[in-house]
Amino acid sequence: MRVVLEAGELLFCAHHARHHAPGLADVAVHIQDETDRLLEEHGAGAR
């Protein structure tokens, strides 16, 4: 997951993105979440 902030950007693996999602949503300018692509390409075990 890519999180764009006013001061830059942060990159997270799917696990840590889910863990920090509530706080990130409060401060992010944009969130690019492509975890669905991981699930499509690699199956449900990618979570």
Describe the structure.
With 47 residues, the protein is α+β, with helices and mostly antiparallel strands. The chain has one domain (2-46). The protein has helices spanning 14-27, 35-42, and strands spanning 2-5, 8-11, 30-32. Strands 2-1-3 form a 3-stranded antiparallel β-sheet, covered by helices on one side. A hairpin with a 2-residue loop joins strand 1 (2-5) and strand 2 (8-11). The protein is elongated. The mean pLDDT is 87.
Report how far apart the termini are: 13 Å
In which range does the helix fraction lie?
40-55%
Q: What is the chain-wise order of helices and strands?
A: EEHEH
Structural class: alpha+beta
> Which segments are poorly predicted (pLDDT under 50) over 5 or more consecutive residues?
none
User: How large is the radius of gyration?
Assistant: 11 Å
Overall, the morphology is: elongated
Provide the residue-averaged pLDDT.
87
Order of strands, main sheet, comes to: 2-1-3
How many strands in all? 3
Strand content: 15-25%
How many distinct helices? 2
Largest sheet: 3 strands, antiparallel
Structural topology:
Blueprint: E1 2-5, E2 8-11, H1 14-27, E3 30-32, H2 35-42
Antiparallel strand pairs: 1-2, 1-3
Question: Can you tag this structure with a few keywords?
Answer:
alpha+beta; 2 helices; 3 strands; single chain; 47 residues; 23% strand
